[in-house]
Structure formats: structure tokens, C-alpha cells
């Protein structure tokens, strides 16, 4: 009996390690962006795709991955995803061009889309209701561990080895997780296999891809560019068609919609999800722009850049601790109804986002000569507000889910957050790029004296501008490039601050004080042959 119990917790450790690998990969790449821009001759659009190829495929595949796990077995699918993640990490490390790296990152995102939801989906099979909070906390916390480890480890690797080493660190971790999952985890699947909503998968994937591609093209060629406008419009039409199709499938007694749209009947779910998506939009943009500021403007190496991101993580940890303490229900005598949290969700979310907005407004005053202490301060305060607001918004959304909807609801929340992050990188990246180019023009300097390739590189990214200025031995051009990038970053931070302020106001206006479940589901929304979990020991 004791051996079986230990086996379950060791299996949970394998799940946590799998999730850690996914979280680690996000942080490491942001530090490597300036190096990739130089070594692979990548433009700002390429840099955006290095991030977006991963997060877009991850978001698009999260929902069908849950259904595939129910149908074919969660252990089987998770094992295959770990193998693919390891192989894709090797492909990323040895990519010889921007196109190869983008394709390999997309494959990484596909594997991650399976790992994330299935790592949570097997917990109810392995653990009792009393054990689940501890199990979920361990797996969920593993994602946050990747953030402080990523900058330090990734920075050290970038300073001592070539950029491909930041992907190779995934391989031993994936191998350890693969062995543990294979030997320790029982297989589990739905008793009655659900059918995959193929039209829903195609519509959602195509819509998200087209929308994001349109944003990136708009940043490269202008918002009036015909291709950008057409692809954004096509993406919007596909997503509207997706929603209409899901409603149609839900009305069928034997249908299995990819998304349970009735979840949005709950204000807690709707606004908790919306607010967490908005903050993901802003956060991913910040993590895209700040490393380039440290390395290309401040001239720091990768490891030093990673260390300067730690105040954000420290503030986040403090915010998490404060938020969790304020959300912990007061103790009540045995037999009494459960107590309510010390501070309700509406107040906590508003405070957290307001703190974040104030910190970002201060950060928007960054200059080329700003000191490390200034950056560390607003980073830490931003993290503090984020740590209070983000988990509270997520708890509001998750608390509105009934047990039979927890799997699909969690996947939907995760998918929307990933979409927010993807579009955040695209939109905020274009804001930086546009302001950077405008700054170069306003500086009064021209690039006509440079070779055509160098001038194009200077206009394409701050890394290209720094390289062109140094090759031409032009101190005025180097200063103009750095000032222009900081100007673009400050504009982006103002936008992020505005998003945080809007989130605070929306939370105050619409988020319920306590989570409320959605309205009961009628028969057409709950097919008679709905899937049920079964587990088989191996």
C-alpha cells in the first residue's frame, strides 16, 4: 500500500518535471533573442515568429489535445509528446536559419500543447479529492520555477556556449520525465471515447494563425498593408465561424464541441479569464522587449541580462505570497460552513492591476542612461502587482467551474491566455518596431551612406542597427539607434500600463466578489454518452 502511494507521488514529480521543461523554454528564448538576431540575421518579424510559432501552435492545439488524451490514453499521448519535445529541442539547437528555427519552435509548441493539459488531466485519476490541492499546487508551481531558473541558467549558457545550448538543456530533463512517466504513471482514458471536433480544430487553428500573421505583417509593412488587413480579416471571420460551429455542435445530443461555450454564462469565469488573458498580453510583450534593451542598448551580456530580470520574479513571488494569504479562508469551527477569504476577488484584482499599472508608468520613463536600481525597482513592483492580480483572476475563473467541466474549462482558460500572449508579442512588437523606425527618422541621421544590406538591417531591428553602427564606426548612429529603441520600449510600456489600468477598472466593475458557477447545463449540452474516466494499472 505504501509502495503504491509513493508511486503516485513519484509520478506526480514526473508531471512537474514535464511542466518545468515547458516553462523553462519560454524564459530562455527571450534572453537568446538578441543573439539569434545577429547569428541568424533575423529581423524583428523573425524574432516575433520565434516566440509566436511556439505560443500560437501551443494555443491552437491545447483544446484538441485534451480530447485526444481522453480518446487514446493520457499516458500514451504524454509519452509521445515528451519524445517529440526532446526531438524538437535538438532541431532548434542545430537550426541553420531563421526558417528552420521557426519550424522547430512550432513543433515544440505542438508537444507542449499536449504536455500542459494532460499533466493536469491525470491528477484526478491518481489522487483523491483531499490530495488534489497539494498535487495541483506542485504541478502548477513547477511552471513558475522555470522563470527564475531560465534567465540565470540560460544567460550562463549563452555567455559560455553557442545559442543552441539553451535548447539542449531540455533534452536531459525530458529524458528523466519520459522514464518516470513510462515506469510510474498508470494509463487513463475516457470509458467512452469522444469524437474529435475536426471542423472546430481547423477553424480555430486557421483563425488564430491568420490573425497573428496579419498582426506581424502589419508591423513589418504598415497597418494599411493589403496582405496584413486581408489575413487579419480572414482570421476574424474564421474565429466567428468557429463560435457558430461550436454552438451548432453543442445543440446535438451526440455532439462533442471543442469548446463549452456555456461556461461564459458565469461572470466569474468570463471576467476571470478575460483579465488573465489581458495581463498575459502585456506580460509577454514586456518579456519580448526588455532583454533587447539590456543587451543592445545597455551592452550587457546574456547572463547579466538574466540576472536583471530577477527583480520581476522576486516581486512576483512576493505578490503570490500576499495574494494567497489574503485569499485563504478564515478558520471556522468544525461542522460550520467554510469561511470566506479575508479579501474578495474584486478588491484583490483591482489592487494588483493598479499597482502593476503604476509601476509600468514609472518604467515608461526609462532612458538610455537609466541605472540598474531604477529598472530593478519598477520590475519588482510590476511583479508584485502581477503576483496579486494574476492568480486571483485565475482563481475566480477556475472557482466557477463545476467538477464535470474542470478539464475543458481549464484548457479553455489556458488556450485564451496563450492567445493573449501570442497577440501581445505581435502587437507590442510592432509598436516597438514602428516607434524605433520613427525615432531613427526623427534623429536627422540617414542610412544612405551604409551598404543596402546594413541599412536594411539597421531599420529591421535594434540588433541590426547596433551592428551597422559599429561596422561603420559611427558613434552618432549608435546613439540614435539606442535612443530610438528606448523610445519604442517606453511607448510599449505606456500601452502595457494602459492595459493594466483597464484591467483594474474592468475587474472593479464586472468581476463578482466571489466565484459563482455557471447556470445548470441542459440536456443538449450534456450528451448521454459523455466520456467518463477510467484508469488501468500497468
Could you name the key traits of this structure?
538 residues, mainly alpha, 2 strands
Walkthrough of the structure:
The protein contains 19 helices and two strands. With 538 residues, the protein is mainly alpha-helical. A two-stranded antiparallel sheet has the order 1-2. It is globular and about 70 Å long.
Outline of the structure:
The protein has 538 residues and is mainly α. Helices cover 76% and strands 1% of the residues. The chain is globular and about 70 Å long.
Rg? 23 Å
Number of strands: 2
In order across it, which strands form the biggest sheet?
1-2
- Estimate the helix proportion, in percent: over 70%
Topology:
Blueprint: H1 2-39, H2 44-72, H3 74-93, H4 98-121, H5 123-126, H6 132-160, H7 165-168, H8 170-184, E1 187-190, H9 198-221, H10 226-251, H11 267-297, H12 302-307, H13 310-327, H14 345-363, H15 372-399, H16 406-442, H17 452-460, H18 462-471, H19 475-510, E2 533-536
Antiparallel strand pairs: 1-2
Amino acid at each position: 500500500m505504501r509502495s503504491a502511494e509513493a508511486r503516485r507521488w513519484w509520478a506526480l514529480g514526473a508531471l512537474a518535471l514535464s511542466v518545468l521543461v515547458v516553462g523553462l523554454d519560454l524564459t530562455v528564448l527571450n534572453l537568446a533573442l538578441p543573439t539569434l538576431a545577429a547569428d541568424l540575421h533575423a529581423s524583428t518579424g523573425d524574432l516575433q515568429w520565434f516566440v509566436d510559432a511556439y505560443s500560437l501552435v501551443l494555443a491552437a492545439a491545447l483544446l484538441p489535445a485534451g480530447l485526444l488524451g481522453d480518446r487514446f490514453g493520457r499516458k500514451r499521448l504524454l509519452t509521445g509528446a515528451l519524445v517529440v519535445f526532446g526531438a524538437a529541442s535538438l532541431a532548434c539547437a542545430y537550426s541553420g536559419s531563421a526558417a528552420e528555427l521557426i519550424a522547430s519552435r512550432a513543433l515544440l509548441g505542438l508537444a507542449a500543447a499536449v504536455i500542459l493539459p494532460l499533466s493536469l488531466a491525470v491528477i484526478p485519476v491518481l489522487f483523491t479529492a483531499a490530495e488534489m490541492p497539494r498535487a495541483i499546487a506542485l504541478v502548477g508551481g513547477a511552471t513558475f520555477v522555470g522563470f527564475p531558473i531560465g534567465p540565470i541558467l540560460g544567460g550562463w549558457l549563452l555567455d559560455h556556449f553557442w545559442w543552441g545550448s539553451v535548447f539542449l538543456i531540455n533534452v536531459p530533463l525530458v529524458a528523466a520525465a519520459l522514464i518516470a512517466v513510462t515506469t510510474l504513471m498508470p494509463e487513463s482514458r475516457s470509458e467512452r471515447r469522444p469524437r474529435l471536433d475536426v471542423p472546430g480544430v481547423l477553424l480555430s487553428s486557421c483563425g488564430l494563425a491568420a490573425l497573428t500573421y496579419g498582426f506581424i505583417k502589419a508591423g513589418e509593412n504598415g497597418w494599411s498593408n493589403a496582405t496584413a488587413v486581408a489575413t487579419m480579416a480572414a482570421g476574424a471571420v474564421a474565429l466567428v465561424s468557429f463560435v457558430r460551429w461550436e454552438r451548432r455542435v453543442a445543440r446535438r445530443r451526440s455532439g462533442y464541441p471543442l469548446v463549452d461555450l456555456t461556461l461564459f454564462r458565469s461572470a466569474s469565469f468570463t471576467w476571470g479569464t478575460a483579465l488573465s488573458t489581458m495581463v498575459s498580453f502585456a506580460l509577454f510583450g514586456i518579456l519580448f522587449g526588455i532583454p533587447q534593451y539590456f543587451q543592445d542598448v545597455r551592452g550587457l551580456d546574456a547572463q547579466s541580462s538574466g540576472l536583471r530580470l530577477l527583480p520581476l520574479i522576486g516581486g512576483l513571488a512576493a505578490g503570490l505570497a500576499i495574494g494567497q494569504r489574503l485569499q485563504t479562508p478564515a478558520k471556522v469551527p468544525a461542522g460550520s460552513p467554510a469561511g470566506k477569504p479575508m479579501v474578495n476577488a474584486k478588491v484583490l484584482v483591482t489592487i494588483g492591476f493598479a499597482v502593476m499599472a503604476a509601476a509600468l508608468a514609472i518604467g515608461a520613463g526609462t532612458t538610455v542612461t537609466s541605472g540598474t536600481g531604477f529598472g530593478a525597482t519598477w520590475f519588482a513592483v510590476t511583479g508584485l502587482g502581477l503576483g496579486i492580480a494574476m492568480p486571483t483572476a485565475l482563481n475566480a475563473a477556475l472557482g466557477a467551474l463545476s467538477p464535470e467541466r474542470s478539464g475543458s474549462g481549464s484548457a479553455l482558460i489556458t488556450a485564451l491566455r496563450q492567445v493573449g500572449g501570442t497577440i501581445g508579442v505581435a502587437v507590442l512588437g510592432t509598436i516597438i518596431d514602428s516607434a524605433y523606425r520613427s525615432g531613427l527618422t526623427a534623429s536627422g541621421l540617414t542610412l544612405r551612406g551604409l551598404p543596402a544590406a546594413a541599412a536594411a538591417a539597421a531599420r529591421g531591428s535594434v540588433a541590426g542597427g547596433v551592428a551597422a553602427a559599429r561596422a561603420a564606426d559611427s558613434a552618432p548612429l549608435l546613439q540614435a539607434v539606442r535612443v530610438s529603441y528606448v523610445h519604442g520600449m517606453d511607448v510599449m510600456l505606456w500601452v502595457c500600463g494602459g492595459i493594466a489600468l483597464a484591467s483594474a477598472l474592468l475587474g472593479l466593475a464586472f468581476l463578482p466578489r466571489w466565484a459563482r458557477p455557471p447556470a445548470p447545463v441542459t440536456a443538449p449540452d450534456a450528451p448521454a454518452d459523455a466520456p467518463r474516466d477510467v484508469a488501468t494499472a500497468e
